[in-house]
Design a protein that fits this description.
Number of helices: 1
Strand order of the largest sheet: 3-2-1-4
GO biological process, one term: DNA integration
Oligomer: single chain
Helix content: 10-25%
InterPro entries: Integrase_cat-core (IPR001584), RNaseH-like_sf (IPR012337), RNaseH_sf (IPR036397), Transposase_IS3/IS150/IS904 (IPR050900)
Strand content: 35-45%
Largest sheet: 4 strands, mixed
Radius of gyration: 13 Å
Protein name: Transposase InsO family protein
Pfam family, one: rve
Shape: elongated
GO molecular function: nucleic acid binding
């Protein structure tokens, strides 16, 4: 991407800890692969994804036309 905030991608990963599974949702800007939003929780439901996306929007304040892609769907 030629400029920041044109396309973001998101994904979730699971991390095993001594207290159980921890889920990390991350949003990256394809322009520079910078992590622009993230969230962690003990579940993989919609609020986890929304928290990461809301952080990214709050930090970057993208203009209309941003493409956001995620291939993971919460259950």
């Amino acid at each position: 991407m030629a400029e920041p905030n044109q396309a973001w991608v998101a994904d979730i990963t699971a991390i095993w800890t001594l207290e159980g599974w921890l889920y990390l949702a991350a949003v990256l800007d394809l322009h520079d692969r910078q992590l622009v939003g993230w969230a962690m929780a003990d579940h993989m439901r919609t609020p986890l994804l929304l928290d990461a996306l809301e952080m990214a929007v709050g930090r970057r304040q993208p203009k209309s036309g941003l493409i956001h892609h995620s291939d993971r769907h919460p259950t």
